[in-house]
Design brief:
Blueprint lengths: L8 H11 L24 E2 L3 H10 L7 E2 L51 E2 L3 E3 L3 E6 L2 E6 L7 E7 L3 E8 L2 E11 L14 E11 L7 E9 L1 E8 L2 E9 L1 E2 L9 E3 L2 E4 L2 E4 L8 E9 L8 E7 L4 E4 L3 E7 L4 H16 L5 H11 L6 H17 L3 H26 L1 E10 L2 E11 L8 E4 L2 E12 L2 E11 L5 E8 L4 E8 L2 E7 L3 E7 L6 E8 L2 E9 L2 E11 L5 E12 L7 E8 L16 E3 L4 E16 L4 E16 L3 E8 L4 H6 L10 E5 L2 E5 L3 E6 L5 E6 L19 E3 L1
Parallel strand pairs: 2-14, 17-19
Antiparallel strand pairs: 1-17, 3-12, 4-5, 5-6, 6-7, 8-9, 9-10, 10-11, 11-15, 12-13, 13-18, 15-16, 18-19, 20-21, 21-22, 22-23, 24-25, 25-26, 26-27, 28-29, 29-30, 30-31, 32-33, 33-34, 34-35, 34-44, 36-37, 37-38, 38-39, 40-41, 41-42, 42-43
Length: 729
């Protein structure tokens, strides 16, 4: 007779969830326990391409790399059809050389970087005399000082997508991504086969004659540009490329100089599962001595997302990703390790007996287990069922959070650097995920890390923040966990023995955390509306925060408003204070500096703070040209003064927009100010179309240089009406 089940909806949902864990008919049963998905601590080096291919084939079930049939690209001779373009003709009034065009400024700003002494690539650089900028597909050199005589001295076309530069004396490096057709002859083949390939180029120029830059080297390899730093005369950059393997071969990283092989890097790996394998290649070269051989090493690991560089090491971090088969095994293990122990003894013994019966396949086992569960449920009264469901849900929730803490980790690899030399050191792991490069900091041989952990466990959301200290070998030395539950990190800044950290959900807790020992501890906390996306040191007792205002909305949640710039007084670490605040615009107002610290300009001695701003002003107005409402948008740079005594003062504003665009603004406008710099008492603002010079004393315009921007003006799509976004309830 057919059995009748009187099972609660919650219990039925649990049965369905667990039943879905079992392999389908005809599928191979996976018997490897979850615990075997542990990482090997020892780095290994591949000895041949065949060894790489064998490793990938063995792990192909993890979905760990792209597998292709047929002929590959890197098995033999490479013949590149896309080469670096020669410099274009220069303007008629170009200066002959830097030495012939006068002295530079006595003082000038540099790119805002995270670590003093470690330069970061950007699309605008200056040396106190010249401004070097990427405008469209051209490298433009502007004789900028004195400002009254500012003008373009050279334009050099660069094929591909370029937005990163380094300048060191009379040498310049531009990083370019290009899509190229790269024919190759596969192993034991005779006919070249064309293939499309993304490559990253490091173009090294001699700029001793600013009017005529000369290409010295074109270092290039497959993949995309990830990050770059310059320490002294050595440039370090990282390219990453997805691993592709074929029936009989695998593409491997090869560093070329133009079309000749410059470095065949060793490839290192870890015997651990990854959902996606990638080649992360670290290359170094001397920017001033092109005769010195470059160096490169490649690491097959997960998809790198964060790079932090100190003066002594490169840290590459990524979120750990388990292969799909891990979750199949996880579901099965959860059933036997969490659910079965909660069952009555007779049901538990029956299920364990079925599990150990080697004569049954997976489907037959689950059919018998289901029958045992049905009998168990039918024997329970309603009170027993409710009690069982409650205990089961609690156990599953605790188990899933515990497992999430084990697997939702960030992997961090440390590579020592010294005058171009590269030496792998170790790797470490911490729970949670990083916000950005400012989540990492090396101090006195230890790496400090700030993370946010979150988990959906049985419909229960868990979120908290932590700080970890790793020693020189990347082993855990100390930690402070579960800071600000139910909130996430919005910004961090490590300064000496302290960490300043902002978390947010409804208010902005600004934390001061002591890192003088290996065990972090909270010294003080300040709660106030809004949040900071970027923190910057003012002096030993003050921190600048740039972020957004917030306010409670009519639905009981929190909405973002305009930009907020705050000055925090941390002279009393146990009682931090909000000393001064400056607000800009209404809801929807934004600044590139909130997401890219290189857009932030600050100089304490000059009492100067410059922020590129896209400001929403006033109420939305109906525009008959487009048939709907849009808002007034101003784009430009806010120029502020700042002292602890006087707080923030507006010195002036600079815009590169004209006419209708100034009133309404366009998305992605080439006239939007993106960077600012100074030479002596002249402020220079840079957009895609212009460089403007204004006096810092009176903000009067001194000169405007029109850049050779060749991109089309974006379609004048009006900026839509911005409503207040609900952030939290």
């Amino acid at each position: 007779m057919k059995k009748t089940l009187t099972v609660s909806i919650a219990l039925l949902a649990a049965i369905v969830m667990l039943a879905a864990c079992t392999p389908q008919t005809g599928q191979k049963q996976v018997t490897t326990p979850v615990s075997t998905f542990s990482e090997g601590d020892d780095m290994k080096k591949f000895s041949s391409r065949q060894e790489i291919l064998d490793f990938l084939k063995e792990n192909s079930g993890a979905g760990s790399a792209a597998s292709y049939g047929g002929i590959g690209r890197s098995g033999g001779i490479m013949m590149e059809t896309a080469m670096a373009a020669p410099p274009m003709a220069k303007s008629a009034d170009a200066a002959a050389s830097s030495s012939a065009s006068g002295a530079g400024a006595a003082g000038y700003s540099r790119t805002n970087v995270q670590v003093e002494g470690v330069d970061e690539a950007d699309f605008v650089k200056n040396d106190g005399k010249y401004i070097y900028a990427i405008s469209g597909n051209k490298l433009v050199i502007v004789d900028a000082f004195p400002a009254e005589d500012a003008g373009i001295v050279s334009e050099t076309k660069i094929d591909g997508y370029s937005q990163q530069l380094f300048v060191n004396g009379d040498h310049l490096v531009a990083f370019v991504n290009r899509g190229e057709e790269v024919p190759s002859i596969a192993k034991y083949d005779i006919i070249p086969r064309p293939a499309y390939q993304q490559r990253v180029h490091a173009l090294l120029y001699d700029i001793s004659d600013r009017s005529d830059p000369k290409l010295l080297k074109d270092y290039n390899l497959a993949g995309n540009f990830l990050s770059a730093r310059m320490i002294g005369d050595y440039v370090y950059f990282i390219a990453q490329d997805g691993v592709r393997y074929y029936t009989t071969m695998v593409d491997v990283p090869v560093v070329k100089e133009a079309s000749s092989i410059a470095v065949q890097p060793d490839i290192f790996y870890f015997p651990q599962p990854e959902d996606n394998y990638n080649f992360n290649t670290v290359m170094s070269f001397n920017i001033k001595d092109e005769s010195e051989e470059p160096q490169a090493k490649s690491f097959m690991m997960g998809w790198a997302s964060t790079v932090y560089v100190s003066e002594d090491a490169i840290y590459i971090a990524y979120q750990k990703n388990y292969p799909y088969r891990y979750y199949e095994q996880y579901n099965e293990e959860r059933f036997y390790d969490v659910i079965v122990p909660l069952l009555p003894s007779d049901a538990r013994d029956s299920i364990n007996g079925i599990k150990g019966d080697g004569s049954l396949n997976a489907d037959e086992k689950w059919d018998r287990i289901s029958s045992v569960l049905e009998d168990m449920y039918n024997a329970m009264d309603e009170g027993s069922k409710e009690d069982f469901v409650e205990r089961m849900q609690k156990a599953i929730r605790e188990y899933e959070v515990r497992k999430d803490e084990e697997r939702r980790k960030t992997v961090i690899h440390k590579i020592a650097i010294d005058d171009g030399d590269l030496e792998y050191v170790a790797k470490g792991e911490v729970k949670g995920y990083l916000l950005n490069q400012f989540s990492l900091d090396e101090h006195e041989g230890r790496l400090r890390v700030a993370t946010t952990f979150d988990s959906w466990a049985a419909d229960d959301y868990v979120q908290y923040n932590s700080v970890y200290v790793l020693d020189g070998q990347m082993d855990l030395a100390g930690s402070l966990e579960r800071i600000a539950p139910d909130e996430r990190i919005y910004s961090t800044r490590f300064i000496g023995d302290r960490l300043y950290m902002v978390t947010f959900k409804r208010v902005d807790p600004f934390f001061v955390i002591d890192l003088s020992g290996t065990d972090p501890r909270i010294l003080g906390e300040l709660k106030l509306p809004g949040f900071s996306d970027y923190l910057h040191p003012y002096d030993g007792d003050h921190i600048i925060g740039v972020g957004k205002e917030t306010a409670e909305n009519e639905w009981g949640g929190v909405s973002t408003k305009g930009i907020k710039i705050a000055l925090f007084d941390v002279s009393d670490v146990s009682n931090p204070k909000n000393q001064a605040v400056y607000s800009i615009g209404e809801a929807g107002t934004d600044s590139e500096a909130l997401n890219d610290h290189k857009a932030f300009l600050f100089d304490k001695e000059k009492s100067l703070l410059v922020l590129p701003v896209r400001e929403i002003r006033g109420e939305a107005k109906y525009d008959p040209r487009y048939g709907y409402y849009r808002q007034n948008v101003w784009q430009g740079a806010y120029v502020l003064g700042l002292t602890p005594e006087d707080g923030f003062t507006l010195k002036g504003k600079v815009t590169h927009s004209e006419g209708d665009e100034q009133q309404w603004g366009w998305y992605g406008s080439p006239s939007a100010v993106r960077r600012a710099l100074y030479m002596d008492d002249i402020l220079y603002t840079v957009s895609g179309k212009y460089i403007k010079a204004n006096g810092l004393e009176d903000m009067e315009e001194v000169a405007t240089v029109k850049l050779p921007y060749e991109g089309e003006q974006p379609y004048p799509y009006p900026v839509p009406m911005v409503s207040e976004g609900v952030m939290a309830k």
